[in-house]
Design brief:
With 323 residues, this protein is of the alpha/beta class. The chain has 11 helices and 13 strands. Strands 3-2-1-4-5-6-11 form a 7-stranded parallel β-sheet, with helices on both faces. It is globular and about 55 Å long.
């Protein structure tokens, strides 16, 4: 059996899906998560239950505890790391900035240290974000990895860009092969309750009003979780040369307007939303649009699931999970 892969944030939305896919293809996985209360920990525990088995070992731990992470990587003989743990949420970063310093800065650094002290570590894959691009103008052009990412509009975005720069330093100093993935609005079953499509579903079914920020004029590059997982595994299996910190967009490359997403949800739920239009919130961006040519050239990545199909799968899961 192959050496274990360490997945941080294994009880999270993307972490659970990646871990499940790795297990399904015969890998051994060590999962780490602190199970914090940013949203209902019961959902995180339920995700972990879907991973139970002899090839999966879970450790509840704080990734910012550097000695513990270094010891874990050494003890388990980890050769590949998929670092997905982070404090998520653009708006929350304005209210709770030090949570982001701890998880996204100290946590990222601790995982880099654990990886560079592991002589057998062949690839360090980590989660970045489309938010590093800032608030791009609405000119119909996709975001490319070689564009400057120097104007974050939220602390969350700033910590994600800082993580990329920290990784670049570790690639240069220690030759650690790394890939940073800039995620674009991931959605689907087992998702995060703070995401718009998830909270809108709950409120529409409960007959509660939904807050439509940006007066409904925003657009997002919604990317279905299965497509994201396929991209992550494709990247994981293709490490860059030693000393390279490769940055790649991972998205759907088909932005959808917020109002179109809401209309799709209304159709799937059989109910009309009570909409309260509000201005843009601090930290939000108008649109996201991924150029995925680099990822496609490397892995053959090609998103398969359109928004309507993906939201239908989510609604089916939501009704089953929450009754």
């Amino acid at each position: 059996m192959s050496d274990p892969i360490l997945v941080t944030g294994a009880a999270g939305f993307i972490g659970r899906a990646v871990t499940r896919a790795l297990l399904d293809r015969g890998e051994r996985v060590v999962g780490v998560d602190n199970l914090n209360a940013y949203y209902d920990p019961a959902l995180k525990h339920a995700r972990l239950e879907t991973l139970a088995g002899p090839a999966f070992r879970f450790e509840q731990a704080d990734i910012a505890e550097a000695p513990a992470m270094q010891a874990l990587v050494a003890r388990e003989g980890v050769t590949r790391i998929v670092h997905l743990a982070a404090q998520a949420g653009v708006r929350y970063s304005i209210d709770q900035p030090f949570s982001y310093q701890h998880a996204n800065l100290a946590g990222h650094l601790a995982m880099l240290e654990a990886a560079r002290h592991a002589p057998a570590c062949r690839h360090f894959v980590y989660a970045s974000s489309s938010s590093v691009y800032g608030n791009q103008p609405l000119n119909g052009a996709a975001f490319r990895e070689d564009e400057p990412a120097v104007a974050p509009v939220s602390l969350y975005a700033a910590t994600k860009r800082a993580g990329e720069l920290m990784s670049q330093a570790y690639a240069t100093l220690y030759g650690l092969p790394q890939t940073g993935l800039r995620f674009f609005t991931v959605y689907g079953p087992w998702g995060r309750p703070d995401m718009a499509y998830f909270s809108f579903t709950r409120k529409i079914l409960a007959g509660e009003p939904i807050a439509v920020f940006g007066e409904g004029r925003m657009a997002r590059d919604f990317t279905y979780i299965d497509d994201i997982v396929a991209g992550i595994l494709g990247v994981l299996d293709r490490p860059p040369p030693a000393g390279e910190n490769r940055l790649l967009n991972i998205g759907d490359s088909r932005p959808v307007g917020l109002m179109a997403m809401i209309e799709t949800l209304e159709r799937l739920l059989g109910r009309e939303a009570v909409k309260q239009f509000q201005p843009m919130q601090p930290g939000d961006v108008t649109t996201t649009f991924a150029d995925v040519a680099r990822l496609a050239a490397l892995t053959g990545y090609h998103p398969q699931v359109m928004l309507e199909e993906g939201l239908a799968r989510f609604v089916d899961w939501y009704r089953g999970f929450y009754g």
